[in-house]
Design a protein that fits this description.
Layout lengths: L1 H17 L8 H10 L5 H24 L3 H19 L4 H27 L5 H24 L7 H21 L1 H19 L2 H20 L8
Length: 225
């Protein structure tokens, strides 16, 4: 037991020796450490540049946001997006899915509006229904990838493939507005079936049924006597 206590005391002394000088609790000692900028104190050396750049960034964003209402909205959206990215930095698949869903919503709405401008004889009701259909399909792709309990592949890649098909369908919808949403629905359904394992399980079941049928049709040897 004496050897163990001696080793613990030695480790404690080594930690105390490695600790930076002047490391005491309280606001005033912390301020002294920050202003002293001892090279052996990594806390003070790293904190001062972060404070300076942080104040500069906050002041710049405040100056831009105070110019107009649009600038204020853009800064709020930027701050919200940055907070979401920071919170989901460890969940890359969900972050990829949310990012591709946002881009798909923007692209499908843009292509539908461009198709409406190109077709002067088409009412805005058809375009509005198409935009709502594309947005519903993006939500379907996002929810469908996470509703599967055991997804065989990466869920974010599944949403990415479905969103790419939706963007292609919206481009087709610029020329044929009645065919864009059904084409996107079939594409999203096919991607979810292939990536979610539904098609694989169906093919496996069909193979098992076929094998059982072939084995049942074989007549046993020596049956006719």
């Amino acid at each position: 037991m004496s050897t163990t206590q001696a080793s613990r005391r030695t480790q404690r002394c080594a930690r105390d020796a490695k600790a930076p000088r002047g490391r005491t609790s309280g606001l005033l000692p912390g301020l002294r450490r920050l202003l002293h900028q001892d090279r052996d104190d990594p806390w003070a050396v790293r904190l001062l540049p972060r404070l300076v750049f942080g104040v500069a960034v906050v002041y710049t964003l405040f100056a831009i946001a105070s110019q107009s209402l649009a600038s204020f909205g853009a800064i709020c959206a930027l701050a919200l997006g940055g907070a979401v990215i920071w919170l989901l930095r460890r969940r890359t698949q969900l972050l990829l899915a949310l990012g591709t869903t946002t881009l798909t919503v923007a692209f499908t709405g843009y292509f539908s509006a461009m198709g409406d401008l190109a077709r002067t004889n088409t009412s805005a009701t058809v375009t509005g229904q198409a935009v709502f259909g594309y947005w519903a399909l993006t939500g379907m792709a996002l929810l469908g990838a996470w509703m599967v309990k055991e997804h065989p592949g990466r869920r974010g890649v599944t949403v990415l493939l479905a969103d790419v098909i939706l963007v292609i369908a919206s481009v087709v919808g610029m020329f044929a507005p009645q065919a864009g949403v059904p084409l996107g629905f079939l594409g999203v359904l096919g991607v979810l079936a292939l990536r979610g394992g539904t098609a694989k399980s169906l093919v496996a079941r069909l193979r098992r049924v076929g094998r059982a049928g072939r084995s049942g049709t074989k007549a046993p040897q020596g049956a006719d006597s």
